[in-house]
Write a structure and sequence with these properties.
Blueprint: H1 9-27, H2 34-41, H3 45-51, H4 55-75, H5 84-99, H6 103-111, H7 118-142, H8 144-147, H9 150-165, H10 179-191
Helix pairs in contact: 1-2, 1-4, 1-6, 4-5, 4-6, 4-7, 5-7, 5-10, 7-9, 9-10
Length: 195
């Protein structure tokens, strides 16, 4: 007879990935052990292995959950239903709001992709490319002359992500600038005349 899952199975896995995101962000994937994670979760190492077959499987879930959330923010946007410049402003705001509380996951995604097995790296990269392609289309719609120059459009798109992806390293919302104001500045920088 097959063993049934506990009612709180998903909640326990989420607690493990939440603790793992913090641990991997602090120590790096290579520097953190399953024993460290068990200590962090106040459970036994064997219980961690009950929920995950390996440390790499935990890392994949940390990254995959985060990239899925980002993908849903990007792909939930209506396609061609509004003014592209306004859509860039709205998307930038929504992405930065998503980053609230996700700084550790973002750091792990940025720094630890090479620690995953190749097939899991490929899955994450495919989702990243979907996000990038969506934003690139939006920027091209907002700046039609740029859409005709694929090299510059690609560079502008990667600059967009460069601005947003690294805010976790320096932005403090307690200062004189709100997250929404920062999003507006980032969107205006992308939409501006500068090449």
């Amino acid at each position: 007879m097959a063993r049934t899952q506990a009612a709180d199975y998903d909640a326990k896995r989420e607690a493990i990935t939440g603790a793992a995101a913090k641990l991997f962000a602090e120590k790096g994937f290579a520097g953190a052990s399953v024993s460290d994670l068990a200590d962090r979760c106040a459970v036994s190492k064997s219980l961690i292995y009950h929920y995950y077959a390996s440390k790499e499987a935990i890392l994949f879930d940390v990254m995959n959950e985060h990239i899925d959330d980002l993908l849903s923010v990007v792909e939930a946007r209506p396609n061609g239903s509004g003014e592209p410049a306004r859509e860039i402003h709205n998307l930038t705001k929504d992405l930065l709001q998503h980053y609230v509380g996700a700084a550790e996951r973002q750091k792990v995604l940025l720094y630890e992709l090479a620690s995953l097995p190749a097939e899991h790296q490929a899955e994450i990269k495919t989702k990243q490319r979907r996000i990038i392609a969506h934003v690139e289309r939006l920027i091209g719609d907002a700046i039609p002359e740029l859409a005709r120059d694929k090299t510059r459009l690609s560079a502008k798109t990667m600059l967009f992500f460069g601005m947003l992806n690294w805010t976790h390293t320096w932005f403090k919302s307690k200062g004189g600038l709100s997250r929404d104001e920062l999003a507006g500045m980032a969107a205006e920088t992308i939409l501006g005349d500068g090449d």
